[in-house]
């Protein structure tokens, strides 16, 4: 990892992300990537945008492990081929990832020095993420360096995940226009500046009947986006969805009166938009019960034959009239809307757009629901074979999909269970050694290297006292265990990192420290607060004959991990011994502190009373004090 495992785990902890392994078929919240980028930015001090770009690069490396880099390279020899095909790739991927919310991207300008890409999405904050993807794809798959800058941006809020709400309701579309600078000379020479072969210029005029027979669902549109010719089968489908209407209403009508543009999303159905997207797959839906506005006499729209390499559409009106009289009337109830899929091609000679398409049909059941038959489909290509194939394999594919979804659910359950086990393991580990030390050990640090000296900390010992004894040793032992469990559990609830850390319990003694492993300049104050809270918690438990002796002392220590089988975080030094003596020489339900600790607490206003000199083993006579209460202002 480029930033290290420790930084990554800190970011996961900061964002509350419980996933350590990510599954390709699992849905994740949209705000996960921006939240992780924000956390990493706060941890490392580097810009938020840098991490969004970095995540975009990582995603390309991730999907390359699954072979999707080969899919991208198959779109064409040049980087521009890929940019033209992005929407087509997303269109195909939605069958594999059915819940994928893909953006829309189209090239609006192409030249020898690069291209202009327009990005549209309903999610905000991902424009830098896309930038990282484009940079990595260009470098890794096409071996070129790309410079990207934003020309225009609308509704893109950095760090957000959903677009702003429009006044009419719904989300506003995020639109970002990029300028991509790269060496595009070879593409322009081979794809754009190519000249027609002389033999193509000598072709004779082609009647529209031939074109519309080859593509019975085709549409021909003029510069005003009005329909000038329609395939025979498309007219039949229109009539099935528009009972008691004349098919001649189609000719001369605006295409948007009868059809709805489904893909590419986010663009308007205009001449300029369609003309520049000739390499993009379009999906157009036939509207049911539509009514054409401003229909004109179709005989006035198209007249005569065309010149060389042109298409003659003069027969469209005549054919439409024949179809109207030959097709039996059927109701539109229950008919499924037809979705046409294909490419829009511009024919310069007649200054028209031709939509070369076929219905999007998966199986025989959908064919019947649309009121179509196999003979209605294109005679060329694989339309009919695909329907047959879909029928023969539909049940099998459906079963496979169900199995894959079941496996995905099982995998998701297994991952959740693994995460649960990991959390339980982490909690157990953190109960034995501090979190910061555990993270260092995870990164491969030797346990012997965790030893650390601290200039000053405060060490506390608390011993539970019992005045009631019994003749039955087993019963007395059980009572003692229950008493210690209640007392130590109450103490555990009072420990809050980094103010204090529970070191261990030995028999009836509870040991804690403030100022280690997390350095804390207010260690004496926090330990005094903890000691007073411990005393109060024992009183609130109201256990008969049970009290507690507490003592603490401040000074330097050395701390580190000891042991391999059951590693423990242990404290060493004279400060530990002195703190233990403060507890053992104290009295029940009292808090005894050393003179050095008392000096610190007096400055803070804590209530203390002088006990006198106490003989401490190995130290001689020491002045000690009783801690009796908090400062007046905090009571």
TrEMBL record:
GO biological process: cGMP-mediated signaling; response to oxygen levels
CDD domains for this protein: CHD (cd07302)
Ranges of Low complexity composition bias in the record: 306-317
EC number: 4.6.1.2
Gene Ontology MF terms in the entry: GTP binding; guanylate cyclase activity; heme binding
Enzyme class: lyase
SMART domains per record: CYCc
Species of provenance: Anopheles christyi
Protein name: guanylate cyclase
SUPFAM superfamilies for this protein: Ligand-binding domain in the NO signalling and Golgi transport, Nucleotide cyclase
Region (Disordered): 291-326
